[in-house]
Automatic annotation (TrEMBL):
This is Endonuclease III. It catalyses: 2'-deoxyribonucleotide-(2'-deoxyribose 5'-phosphate)-2'-deoxyribonucleotide-DNA = a 3'-end 2'-deoxyribonucleotide-(2,3-dehydro-2,3-deoxyribose 5'-phosphate)-DNA + a 5'-end 5'-phospho-2'-deoxyribonucleoside-DNA + H(+). The gene is nth. Belongs to the Nth/MutY family. It comes from Paenibacillus thalictri. Residues 37-185 form the HhH-GPD domain. One of its GO terms (biological process) is base-excision repair, AP site formation. It comes from the Bacteria.
Length: 220
């Protein structure tokens, strides 16, 4: 691993030493539902909805015991709630049909579940089962590109592969959380804190923003 990558990882680690998954959950099943709900939605909103949702629904059978319309109403504060409610019931049915009602541990089996993509599977295997993984959400993608850990035109999969190559495997999960915190609370899409950023000297985006007086027109 080169010095630049080590410097980035150590700096972000010092800024957010306690970075963690902010989605509230008590088991792999709840985590999977929460991550599914979090697509195009803030963790804060998801946590408000799941506070009551997880009291009402404890297992796959519970989600299948109600009409789809009732589940939709229970998550209606979440974006794309109709589609997500549909996916949750399909996911629960598949869990009962193929996995004994339990969330599978393999990445391949997880991505076969309705509504579960590569990012969701990475979050579940790393947080629920302790398997090192880097899930690339909007924060991770933005930060990786701004700091030159990935190319500006890289796809989400390309960003993930480059991070996996540059970051030691035993640091993947922690790095994922820290990059999210860095992007969510410091290197924001619209108003990044460039003027007080300890990584400004290696950030192309930050230097450009500082030159233009923090213009919002520069590429996020």
């Amino acid at each position: 691993m080169n010095q630049k990558v080590r410097h980035i990882l150590d700096t972000i680690a010092s800024m957010f030493p306690d970075a963690h998954c902010e989605l509230h959950h008590s088991n792999p099943f709840e985590l999977t539902i929460a991550v599914l709900l979090s697509a195009q939605c803030t963790d804060e909103t998801v946590n408000k909805v799941t506070a009551s949702l997880f009291q009402k629904y404890k297992c796959p059978e519970d989600y299948l015991a109600v009409p789809l319309e009732e589940l939709q109403q229970d998550i209606r504060r979440i974006g794309l709630y109709r589609n997500k409610a549909n996916n949750i019931q399909k996911l629960c049915q598949l869990l009962l049909d193929k996995h004994g009602g339990e969330i599978p541990r393999s990445h391949e089996q997880l991505t076969e579940l309705p509504g579960v993509g590569r990012k969701t599977a990475n979050v579940v295997v790393s947080n629920a089962f302790g398997v090192p993984a880097i899930a690339v959400d909007t924060h991770v993608e933005r930060v990786a590109k701004r700091l030159g850990l990935a190319g500006p035109d890289d796809s989400v999969l390309e960003v993930e592969k480059k991070l996996m190559k540059k970051v030691p495997r035993d640091e993947w999960t922690l790095t994922h959380h820290r990059l999210i915190f860095f992007g969510r609370y410091h290197c924001k899409a619209q108003n990044p804190q460039c003027e007080v950023c300890p990584l400004l000297d290696i950030c192309r985006e930050g230097k450009r923003r500082m030159k233009t007086g923090g213009s919002r027109k520069s590429k996020p």
